[in-house]
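Dear support,

I submitted the protein below through the web form. The confirmation email said the job was done, but the results page showed an empty box. After a refresh the structure appeared. I'm attaching both so you can tell me whether what I see now is the final result or a partial one.
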Amino acid sequence: MNIYLKRCIPCNNYGSIIFRMISSSEVATALRPFYFAVHPDLFGRYPQQRQVNEDSLKLLSAHLESLLSQRRILPSTPKMLPFYVRTSNSPEQRGTFNLVKVPLERTVDPKIFLRKILESCNLSTEYLDKIPSGTSSGDKSQRSRSSSDTGSYNESFTYRKRTEDGSDNQEESPFESEFDVFQFRIKKARENESLKLWLQKHMVTANVRTRALQELKDEVEKLRESVVKLLQVQDIVYDCGWNVEHFRGCLKSLERLATLHPGAMQVVKGRVVVFAQFTGVSLEGHVMLFTGDVQRNWLDLIQNIEKHDAYLRKLPAYEYALSQVLRNIRIGRRKFMPKAQAMAYASHLRKITTSLLDYLGKYKYPKNWPTDLSKFEIVVESEAGPLMVSPTGQLIVPATCPGTLLVDFLTNHLEESLQKQQSYDRQKHVERDLHTRCIKQFQLVSLDKDDSVTPDRMIECLEKMIATDGLELNDIHLNITTYYSVLTDGTVCIPWNWK
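What the results page shows now:
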C-alpha cells in the first residue's frame, strides 16, 4: 500500500505542494531494529517487562494503522509509549533493562515519526535516510489554492490520497480506527469498572447461556457414554476449544466410523480417545483425532497405530539417554504443555541428545556445574519452542537448540530454576487450598485458570475473592484469565487482577 501524504507549506508567498510517499513494507523495514529490541518474546522470563512491551506495541500498531489508512487519531491516544530494552546482551546483564519513552508523533510526515521512534532507542536511522522523497509543484492555480490555506498550516495537516484518475481525494475520513475505539473502550473499562459492577451487568447473560446449553450438554453426554460403550474405550475427551455442538459432531463421526469399520476399531479398545488439534498418538498413549480431519484420516491412524506405539515404547530409552548426557537431570513435561505426538517427541529427544554429544566431542561442561543435576528438570519441546525457565522452575528448551547455546543457558539459569521450584512447591499447596475454599464459598460449578495465570497471580486473585463481600458467583463456571468475558457456553472469564 502506497500512502501519499500532503501538506501545504508557504514558500516565497506561494504554497508548494509536497508529496511524500512511503509504503507499509518500508515502514516495517525501517522499524525492524526497533522490533528486534522490544519484541515481547525476548522477555519470556520477565513477565512485567513483557506485558509493558506487549501493550505498548499494540498501541503503536494502532497508531501506525491510523496514519497509513488515513484515519483520525483519537484524543485518548497517549503521547508517549513505554518500552523496556536490554541494557546489554552480555550473559551477566541479561536481566537488566532501560525504560525508554517512545513519542507518538501526530505529524503526517512518516519519516519524522519513524525517526523519533528509532532515535528514542539509540537505533540506526541509516535505512530511513535512504528512503527517497518525491516533490511535485503544482500550477499557479494550485499554488494559489495552497497559499490561501497557509494561514492554518501550523499543526493542521490533512491526509490526501490519490484516486485512480490521479486527482486528490481531499475529504478527510470522519471515522476513527475501529481498533483505536476498541482499545479505548477496553482501557476505560479496566480503569473504571469493578468486578462487582461487571458481574451485575453480565451474570444474567451467563445464567441464560448456561441454562440454554444445558439440554445440549445432557444430549452430548449421553452420546459420549454410548460411543464409549460401543468402542469399549476407557474414555472420550474433548480437548479442542470449540463449542459443545462441535463435540457432538465429532462423536457422531466417530460412531459412524465404528459402524462402518468395526474390525479396525478394535485397536482402540481400553484406550483414551481425545478430539484434539492433531491426529496421532500422544505421549500418554492417547489416540488423538484432529477435529478438522475427515474420517479417512482417522481410519488411517487407527490402522497404523502400531507404528506410533513403537515410538511410544522407545521414549523411556531416549529420555534416559538425554538424562545421562546431562548428569542425571530429570526429563519432564510442562503441566500446560500442548499435546505432542510420540513420534515427533522421539525425534526431538534424538536431536537435542545428538547436539549435546557433538558439544562434548569438542568441549567439557563448565567447572561450576554440579556433578549431579537430578534436582533440575528439563522439558524438550518443538523446534519453534521457547528457551526459558517456566514459573514452576522447569528448564524449557527447543529441540533444535545448539549444544553451545544450551550449555550456556543452563549455566546461567540453574540458580533461577531452583528458586522457582522452591517457590512453586510452597505456592501450589496454598493455591490448591484456596481453590477448594472458593468453590465451596461461592458454590461454583467449576473453577479453572488460563495457562498464562501463574500460581502467585492465582493466589492473589483467590485471596482477594475470599476477602470480598457481596460477590455473586453461584452456580457458574468461572475461569481466571486476563480479560472479562462471558463465553457462548455461559463460562464467566475474569482477569486475575480485577478491581
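Response: this is the final, complete result; the empty box was a page-load delay. The first strand starts at residue 2 and ends at 11.
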